[in-house]
Structure formats: C-alpha cells, structure tokens
Amino acid sequence: MPREPAWRVFASELNSSKCYMKATEPKMPSYVVTPLGAKVSRIFIVGVLTGVRVVSDEVIKARVVDQTGAFYLFAGKFRPQVRQILESTPAPQFVAVVGKTNVYQPTEDQMYVSVIPERIKIVDEILRDYWVFDTSRKLKVRIEAMSEALKMSDPTVAKIMDLGFSRKIAEGIITAIQHYDKIDVERYMDMLKSALKHLLPEYQELGYELPNISDEINDEEEENPEEEEMVLRAIEELDDGSGASYGDLVDMLDIPQERIDIILDSLKDRGEIYEPKIGRIKRM
Description:
Layout: E1 6-7, H1 11-15, E2 19-21, E3 31-33, E4 39-40, E5 42-54, E6 60-65, E7 70-75, H2 80-88, E8 93-104, E9 112-122, H3 125-151, H4 157-162, H5 167-179, H6 185-197, H7 201-205, H8 209-220, H9 225-238, E10 244-245, H10 246-252, H11 257-269, E11 273-277, E12 280-283
Parallel strand pairs: 1-5
Antiparallel strand pairs: 2-3, 3-4, 5-6, 5-8, 6-7, 8-9, 10-12, 11-12
Helix pairs in contact: 3-5, 3-6
C-alpha cells in the first residue's frame, strides 16, 4: 500500500477541522478533512518551536508556530530520536516536522487535532519562508476549488475535475461540503494574505518573528480565574495521596487539553501546584 503524501496545511486551517474519517480496515489511513477539503493523514510542517513540556514518563508535548496559529505535537517512546531532538532543542528554533495527524474527540461536537511526529529537523528561516510560500500556493488552489464548488447547485467530483482540479482536490472538496454547514472562504483568503505578507522584505527587516510569537503566547495565556478554580478543585478531588493523575484530570474537566496545559503551567509558575512525580499533580 503506497504511503500517504504529507500535506502542507497552515495551523489555522488544520485546527478548524471538525471532520474525521476513521479507517474502517486495518492498515488503512484515517483522515482529518479540513473545511477546504484537504484530506490529511500525514502532514509536513515548518515553523518555530516555542516550547516542550513533559506530559508523562513516555510522552512529551511540543508547540510549533506558523504565521496563522500553532501545531501541537505529541512524541512518545516509539520515536526516541524525535523525542531526543525536541528535548534538546532550545526554543525558539525553526524546525521541520513530518508526522501523522491525531484526533481527540471528548464529545461528538468537539474535536482537537494534534500531530505525532515521525521525523524532525532543525532548519533555517529560508526553508521556513519557502514552506510558507508553497503552503500558500496549495491553499490558493483549494480556495479556488471550493469557491467554484459553492457556486454550483449540485457540486460533484466530476464537475470540479472538469474545471481543471485534480481528483484528490475534488474529492476533498465534496467531503467538506457534505460535512460542514458553512464554509467561510473569505476567512481563508484573509489567512492566505496574512501569511504571504510576512514574506515581504519590510516585515523581515522589522524582525517580526519573535514579536508575533510573544503576542500570540500572551493572548493565549490570558488568565481565567473560573477555569483555574475548576482545575484546582479537580486536582483536590482526584488526589489519592500521591497527587492527581494528569490523564484523569483531562478526562474529568470539560476544558480543551491545550487550555488545561496552559492553566497548569500558570499555576506552577505561581507556586499553587507542583508535580511530586511526572504526570502527578498536587496543590501546595
């Protein structure tokens, strides 16, 4: 069976995905279908590694940022070389990652997409800029295909292919139209323009990369006292004497896992909780 191609997709488009096509047979790929019809089983990312966090004895979590948002990576014991590179690379650092999409669905209406890295390599800004350009070019094709399909009264794979688009693109577009109630093409056109403008010389001369990352992290880590109190109460309730299990905490709380990680980091920084053992959390 041929290996799935690694898609170039911006973080914002991937994270907007709410369609998961789970494999029905062994060794068959599962797909995350984005609102613009990218059927992603494997993905190629180039961005800035902004942080690495130990989740358990066997798993670490990393965050890689592009111009539109953040990818979340989970590396385990089956890829020791990947884990070693992530743990030994100081942030911020440009990295290239090839990996498989992974889906967490706590409820029928919620879906969070992460990436299980297969390979990772430290790269430079030149390769990152080329990735942005190449990813933008592929995004533009999907925007055009979706725009044409939405004009049709009864869009089909054949009709989209008649306009010159590939079967792979046409099939993804139809799947997306069937799943998503409303597809805001203009949003992705704005995202495309925003990504491309950062390649202009005037933005690069300003040293835009680190200020943008700092702004994004500060926005994402905005304190929410109610959520923090929920996390603290859950830690107390789950503490069996050796601390609350991180996995049990995630399962118990109706809060996205990415947000829980941010809250835990903030509480640790303020000295309100600590980890007596990796993966176990206690209140001070």
